[in-house]
Design a protein that fits this description.
727 residues, mainly alpha, Recoverin, domain 1, 3 domains, 4-stranded mixed β-sheet, two-stranded antiparallel ribbon, 29 helices, elongated
Amino acid sequence: MFTLNEITKHNVSSESSGTSESSDSSVEQNDTKKMTIHLRISDTTFVPKRSLRNGVEAIPKYAKREHHIDQYIGEGEQTFRWLVLAARERLVALYNFNKGKLRNREGMVGIPGAFIPNKVRSEDPETDNEMLKGSTILNTVLRNGDTIWIEFNQDGGKVTKWENETFYQTHGKDFVEERDTYEVVEDEDDEPEIADEEFYNSRKPKAKTAKKERRRSFFLEKAVESEFKAFFETKQTYRKCFKVDWKKVKKLKWMKQQLPEFKACISKHYPLFVNIYQFYSATGEGDPFDMGMNDFQVLLRACNIGDVYLGSVWYAVNFHGKTSIRPSKDSESVDHDTDKNTLSRYEFIEVLFRLGAEIFAKSKEMKAARKKRLEQERRKKEMEEKLQAEGGDVKENEDEKDSKAAAAPAAETTSVSRTFLNTNQCETMLECIEAMFNIIVEEAFNTVDLAELHYADPDSFRRERLYFVEVSDVFLKYSDRLYTIFTEYADKSMDRAHSTGSKEPKLCLEEYYDLLNISGASKGLSKGEITLAFVASQMHSADPLGSKRKRASDDNNDRCTFMEFCDCLARLADFKADGYGLDREVSIEKLPKLSEVLETFLNKLCSGFSRSFWNANPVQSYAKYVDVKYGGYERLRKKYGDGPEEGRSEDDATDEEQRNRVELRSQSAIKMPKELEERINTRDALRRKEYLKAQKIIREQKLKEEVMARRRAGSMAGTNSGRMSKR
């Protein structure tokens, strides 16, 4: 707008052309040493044009704040430009400017008065356009005691004509600040003048260094979509989930006596129990996101806990009484599951406690009955020995022999049954529940194929198979078509759910089945396997029941985002590579690289849709979507890093890479059971063996090429030496 030189520039030479005669006549009429003018400075920046109360009533002009200032100008040889800038400084001094925080009702327009005046007016408005120009000398127009009105306004608007002529030079539509001109004094010793064009052309332009292009990470949006802003399920994730679930669990009387001990017992195994609940819920025939009674009994049989009557336990867990519609202000509202036939995540934790109490009570009865039976047998044996010692004849009739023969197989059967219900020897309730938890941890996934990669810890698949540079490149290759397919079927999910949310659509399980069946990518995969891949790819939500009351476009455990959709496709490709089956025996074999099988699977998925589908749904750019949503990829990268796959390659199986894998495993919130740890170590050994074998082949090939190169060099040297000898 203006420079410091213009603010301080106030002495203008009286010898300027066209001003000397008028200046002399003015000085004769006025006292040249005592020339003072009256300034009326008005600031309309914070003054509204209409009443703020009703917005209609106009505010009269006299309501403007006007400051009366007497300005001494000496001989008056300054210009009007100097006068208005001096008035600006006086206005700034008049403001009691507080440099602290502003209140809400105070105007936030910058430093008050720190702007250029836009209007100047005298006592004779008819001659203002000709006489009150910025370059006009004051004593040519004003006399001692005259009044000048100056108006300031910082609300923003068009540049006025007077302001333009005073402070700017116009070049078309651009406003360029007027610069000072100085008289050039020639000197004999001065250097020869150099034209501007020659001077600037002589400068060599700086060599522009090409910026190193960073590799684009496909998985970077995973951290944004996650509820806890991370690429993996962190300890904080499970800690928050446990806090929500523990608040909903009903605390029984026998639990309240040792509540901290019971809480510590379940919190130690809680992350693994969440994934056990997720897996066995998805393997049943009912809702894959809730556990039915049949699913729970399958878990008990897999863990060899024993047959326990679940009727009373099941319905006691699912009974929540009458919930108040309007909870009190002091009490926190808790969302309970209203389905009485299935278990939610927190109900699964509660049913384990009740089951442990039921087993402890029943095993106590069985122990008492066993003790009573042994005592009877001991007394009977003592009686027989006593009779034999006295010389009595002890004979067994035929009926007693038959009853003993019939009881013998039953006794053998009882001795063979080694369930926890029969072998429990715990003395307290806490010991019994802790022992049952340990059995579930060790036995739940022993007979499940690929449990160490997909189910016990869903992050294990992301660490060991997914987050690699080659896999990211494959997804980037198909990202546009995958995003188009996802948005089309996610919109169908939202239409079916009657969603009116403004967020990105989410894909539900039914439409997920449809797109795999229509494309033909589900060939060779059962519905159970597809469901397991969908469930395992979901990032955990702290309170899924609370989220169900929200819009369908909000993320939850029963619908997936685009990143979770791609995670699910990668798991399906891994299932196909392993020949996975729910009825298949567990076998640990070397798995092929995920990038290879994934490209084949995605190619089949995208090419399986007809031409009419692609005509109706033009391919959308996923990279453009990310740039528009997050303000550019670089902004996203600076906030969340280069991506989880940065620096990781599927072909790398060196000692350093193995140390990195072990470090990532140590950061996991889930402690793997011993059986699953052995499977992971076996897979590491197979991968390491294959890597060393490939490195050996490369070394042998390189050595062979070096030997052949030496032989060629020797033969060429011999030929040259032979020619020289002949000559």
